[in-house]
Amino acid sequence: MSDDRFYWRGRLFSEDEDDDMDGGSQEEEDEWEEGDQGWGSGGEEDLEGEGHEIVGDEDDSDAVDEFEDGTAFHHGDFGQDFLPGHDEDIDRGFTSDGEDEDDVLEGSNPRKGQPRRGRPSGSKKTYESVQKILQLIKDENLTLPSFLSALSWGDYHCARDVKMAATRRSFLHSRTFRMLLYRWWKPPRSSVSRKKPPEGGRKCLTAFAYACTLEALDMELQNLDPLTRTTSQKLSQKELTDFDVEKFAQAIARKAPVFWSMLKLLATTEEQRKANTHKNPQQSLLLIITMLLYSRSQMCNKLQRVFAFFFKFKGLKARGFEVLHSLGITMSYKWTTNAVKTLSKETMLELRWMIKRYAWAASYDNLHIGYDIYNPKFDKVKEDKAGTAAIVHIKKDAPILDEVVNRALQKQRAVGQRTPINTSFIWHLLLESQPRIEAAMVYEVLDVLLGSDEFKFKTYRHRKDPQLQPPSPVRQLPSGPDHISHPYMLGTMHISESSLEGNSKVVDAMLTQLGVGTNEERQKLGVSRLVFFLGDQLTVGHLRTLQHMRCQDPNSFDRMDHIIPIFGWLHFEMTEVRSLHKQYLGTETGLVSLRRALVSLGRKDLMLAGTQGDFHEKFSKTLKQVMVAHIRACWVIMGRTENLEDLRNKGPRELAALARKIVDEFASTLALNQLKAHSNFDQVKVQAVTFLRDVLQHAVLRRAMKYGDVGLMEDLLPHKLLRFAGGQNSHYTGEVLELLQGLHREWVPEVKDFVRNHTWLMNQRGKPDSFRAADDIMEDGIKAIKDTHSLRGPKVDWKYFEIVHPVIPVVTAVSTHVETQFKAWSRYTSHTASSDKTGIQILQRSYLKSGIYETRLGRTLHKTNQAKDYVNDGFTKLQLGIAQRWAEGRDFVRATEEDWPSDETDDSDVSMAGDETSLEASGSAREDGTVTWNAVTMLSETAGAAGGGNTIRRAAGAS
């Protein structure tokens, strides 16, 4: 091993490559041409004025004195304030009081010529050469500091000398130079020495490194300024949701590698880096750097704007905002409030622009918001107040139904009203749709087997066989980016929609917010456009009743001819779930009762059906588990096996045939009729078959809604009609009849297609499995207003809600984006369902043990556990008068004249002044209110529709 190698901090350095490091450029020498930067025309005098040391002709003692006075180290722009530990030692030349040269020399001659850790290697020849050079420097009337200063651009002539420049360049670009810096900073010493270690040039180099680091970090922060700087005070959803933490951190690391590496090293200890290889302080480093940039300029606020908007709707109070703002984490509370108001105003303007260029549908629902008492001495006692939230769905892929369609609809509506659907037509629809529904039920049965842990479908050799795929959709909605619906939330209105008058005011206020306020605009809407209002049964029932009441008003807008009410499929499904709960609850002793299944699954909290809270979600999940247990038991019976894994030996055609057999024998009306043909039929098996048939149809509906098969949803309508009629749910009986009447009697083809394709389901993500009912989206909006993004404070009132709530969709998108970027939900995403699987297996064994799918003639159920067949009873009730009463209740004549008021009588107004955006319903107050409300009594005498007639009678009583 050569003598010019040494150890530093466990690493072996070498000086062998010094001669190969002559890689400098000629540009360094060009800088020293006379008159160039760094040198003035006055020569050495200019250098002296700049504080540079000029050596050569001066006396040696003077040169040494200058160096020891501290002038040889030129601080430049940094100044002594940046030098840590600046004291008299530094001014004396950075000498070490405790340095013992013997301590260094003691270890400079390692045994057998081998370098040891911390010991420099050496030779006698090198020692003698160094002594000669030092003596030569002294003989030339120089000192070592003055010699190095002259060689390092400290002398004008030396700086211009080509040979010296090459030597200097080779030295500064060599590894030896870096090695010397390490040695000067921490001189090597013997590992066995007990003396005080030599200080070397630690103080000087530390101060120099500190100043250089500050300059380097300052330059890197300047490089990061454009990356974080924003040019506009306005917020936009695109700006807030395009922020990518990973890409932003990578960009910062590229533009500020020194700063990023330094912070990354300081953020973890050496033990952490070894023990925890998954720890990544990236987000902490990102926050630190953005806080520093925000402190340098408040326009460098890209991350702060995202956090401000996020925390605004997460319950952070004003004082909390100001604390985070003082730390540089968020924007100020005032800035955020003003930005939200501006964004809300721009959102409403954008919506008004949208509805003039694209098709749209609207939905609204009631909500109750409670107020908090912040100062009992001054605040009045405030109770929960009822209001109404509304959403407008922009459908860019839908056709705009123009005046031609509007006029054609009015004519067809008059014709169809005279030919209402009857039980014969409903029976025809049942028979025609039955094969498609049964095919979907067969796949649900097959899917339970394929999804079981025992079957291991991923390793099944025939898993791609067409026999195991879902049946072809009846009418599939398209998906993709071009078919995304865009929800816009309107300002929340302080109007209760629980009454007919309230619904009339809500519709009027919504149109006012949308910019339809003048008589001209309303005339254009009433004659040349159609508006689809989506909601629960109460909402659409009230709208239909208002249309009935205003049927003789002077123009189409007042008659609401342009409005087509459509019930929401979420509430439709919720009604079916509650019907199943009511039908099959029974007692714990019932072999097929839901109560017994709920006890086995540990869900006693679902014994009572409810419409509030999360009952629907929990019970729907539990109902599916019960259905899975039934189907698994059927597979064991049909497959004649004890374990579902044995069915892997069967081919796909045989499995599909078994699934069809399960539906035919254990889940069909035909099987029920055959079982009931015996005088002493098995009541347990009849109820089991009835239950499995009904829950399979419910599963088919849920799958159709999820994947956008509106054709299958339409096929299910007559079947659900029988359930609602048999289960005494008069409201949805009337709604289904109204929908079937529109689809088959009163609507023109353009309206039928629009209702099927653009009102029943919405897709906000563009994925094939992401369809949702419009009222489901409405419920999410209400939840965001009341809970997820609720606003609380002494100045929060209905006027503020009206201003702020249009940004709720943006808030939801930003919240989801931020939580995803910072993995705020990672702790909730992974969970196990082992308890659910155990409960399903317990139910399966119970059903097999009790033999509910075995025929045992004469087996009976107690009266409390006997469930009625709602489907069979429903058809009987339709025949006995429900359909007839519904038809009679909607038999009225609509006026056709168009008598519009003049513009001079228009008292509508749309106010959007300044930041305090006010969108209040002010116009279209009905002057003929007395005539209209008196008509309620006349209508109530003739209205006999199930649901609609009841609503009219209640309205008449209230009036």
Automatic annotation (TrEMBL):
Residues 15-36, 56-69, 898-909 have a biased composition (Acidic residues). Residues 417-831 form the DUF6589 domain. Residues 71-94 have a biased composition (Basic and acidic residues). Pfam families: DUF6589. Residues 1-127, 896-928 are annotated as: Disordered. This is DUF6589 domain-containing protein. It comes from Antrodiella citrinella.
